[in-house]
C-alpha cells in the first residue's frame, strides 16, 4: 500500500492510498479503520488487537497497528499525563516530561510488537479467515 501526503477533507483527515493488489486509489478516513482481536497462531501465540483497513474494491486487508494489554496501559498513562498539559501550575513541567517519556515508550513498544508479530499467521475466528500479518509502512 502506497500512501500519499494527508489531505484535509471536511473536518476529518484522510490519506490517499493505492492498493498493491488491484491498483485502486482511494482515501482512508478515520471511520475506515477497524479494530478487532485476532489469534496469533504462529511464532508467538497470543491474542492481539489489530487496527486495519480494507481496499474498498478488492478487500485486500492492510494492518496498521497492534495492541495488547501493555499498549493499553501505556495509552491510559499518556491520556492521564495529557490532562495536565493545559494547566499553568507547577506540575505542568513534570506532566510534560511524563507525557514525552510515556509517548516514546509507547512508540518503542508498538514497534517491538510489530517486529515480533510481523510474518505471523493471525486468525479471525469471527469470520473464519487467516492472514499473514504484514504491517503497512
Q: How is the main sheet built?
A: 5 strands, antiparallel
Q: Quickly count the helices.
A: 2
Element-level helix/strand string: EEEEEEHHEE
Strand order of the largest sheet: 6-5-4-7-8
Q: Overall pLDDT, averaged?
A: 86
Q: What is the radius of gyration computed over CA atoms, rounded to a whole number of angstroms? A: 18 Å
Q: Uncertain segments of ≥5 residues (pLDDT<50)? A: 2-10
Strands, total number: 8
Question: Can you give a write-up of this model?
Answer:
This protein is an alpha+beta fold. The chain has one domain. Helices cover 29% and strands 37% of the residues. The protein has 2 helices and 8 strands, in the order ββββββααββ. Strands 6-5-4-7-8 form a 5-stranded antiparallel sheet. A hairpin with a 5-residue loop joins β4 and β5. The termini are close together.
Amino acid at each position: 500500500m502506497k500512501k500519499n501526503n494527508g489531505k484535509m477533507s471536511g473536518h476529518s483527515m484522510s490519506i490517499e492510498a493505492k492498493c498493491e493488489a488491484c491498483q485502486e486509489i482511494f482515501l482512508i478516513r478515520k471511520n475506515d479503520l477497524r479494530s478487532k482481536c485476532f489469534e496469533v497462531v504462529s511464532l508467538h501465540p497470543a491474542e492481539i488487537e489489530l487496527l486495519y483497513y480494507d481496499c474498498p474494491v478488492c478487500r485486500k486487508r492492510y494492518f496498521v497497528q497492534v495492541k495488547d494489554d501493555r499498549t493499553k496501559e501505556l495509552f491510559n498513562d499518556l491520556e492521564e499525563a495529557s490532562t495536565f498539559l493545559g494547566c499553568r501550575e507547577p506540575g505542568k513541567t513534570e506532566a510534560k516530561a511524563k507525557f514525552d517519556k510515556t509517548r516514546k515508550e509507547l512508540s518503542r513498544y508498538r514497534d517491538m510488537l510489530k517486529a515480533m508479530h510481523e510474518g505471523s499467521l493471525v486468525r479471525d475466528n469471527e469470520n473464519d479467515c487467516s492472514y499473514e500479518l504484514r504491517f503497512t509502512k
